[in-house]
């Protein structure tokens, strides 16, 4: 079911989440709601706190981006053989990051109309449980790794604006204030409760 997306200013977006019990009857519903809500908002990733639940769970879709961008761009965002993924990450843990970094612009459904260039590791290794509740240790790179790191940030209470300097935050003061009050034009339901 499509849920309203919590936007900047909500306490839940700024607190670290906890692991969810794998036996929790809430889990399947949560995953379905994340997919429905993300797709409805035409996003490429969404974490549980963004729909008001403080759990280490998120979904990402880098496959869609892979298909949408031209061949020339693919080299910049994906390793050879990588075609992106549609993935569910339950109780993920970041195990390793590469020293190779790269910068690219990111947006966030909880910070509508803001775009920020963020420097992140090219490659990561994480552990997590997949949708079948199987434990996995896996490496990801490029755009997929970036999306995972963005969502991991969310589950740690970190938002895109925490990657911004004080000066930019000052510059964005009024924009952030209107997002906080829900005075922002978006094509999806938002929550400012
Ligand atoms: Zn986000």
UniProtKB/TrEMBL annotation:
Reactions catalysed, as given in the entry: N-terminal N-formyl-L-methionyl-[peptide] + H2O = N-terminal L-methionyl-[peptide] + formate
NCBIfam families per record: PRK00150.1-3
Cofactor mode of binding and number, as noted: Binds 1 Fe(2+) ion.
Keywords on record: Hydrolase, Iron, Metal-binding, Protein biosynthesis
Enzyme class (EC, first level): hydrolase
Cofactor(s), by name: Fe(2+)
Pfam family, one: Pep_deformylase
EC number: 3.5.1.88
UniProt xrefs under HAMAP family: Pep_deformylase
UniProt keyword Metal-binding present: yes
Organism this protein belongs to: Flectobacillus rivi
Record's protein name: Peptide deformylase
Gene name as annotated: def
Chain residues that bind Fe cation: 108, 150, 154
Catalytic residue positions: 151
Family: Belongs to the polypeptide deformylase family.
